[in-house]
Design brief:
About 70% of the residues lie in helices and about 0% in strands. It is mainly α. It has a domain of about 55 residues.
């Protein structure tokens, strides 16, 4: 039960951290005039500020890294216990 709670706290913490990064990036990218659009192969995105695009990538990485640690975090402990 304790391990499940720890994993849930890690996932929620990474989600909250990613949301805070996204809010900070969104607030900072409001007044930029240079707004490139991304080419995605089948189409283009709406024109977005470069800082916002980088912030989205950072928020996605922060969340995916936190979720990976939460889901795979005890693999090393299992190997240590098996020795």
């Amino acid at each position: 039960m304790g391990m499940l709670l720890l994993r849930a706290r890690l996932v929620v913490g990474s989600l909250v951290g990613a949301a805070l990064v996204l809010v900070a990036v969104s607030l900072g990218a409001q007044n930029l005039s240079d707004r490139p659009a991304l080419r995605l192969g089948v189409g283009r995105t709406a024109p977005l500020p470069t800082g916002f695009l980088l912030g989205m990538a950072m928020a996605a990485g922060l969340f995916s890294g936190g979720a990976a640690v939460a889901l795979l975090g005890d693999e090393g402990e299992r190997e240590e216990a098996g020795r």
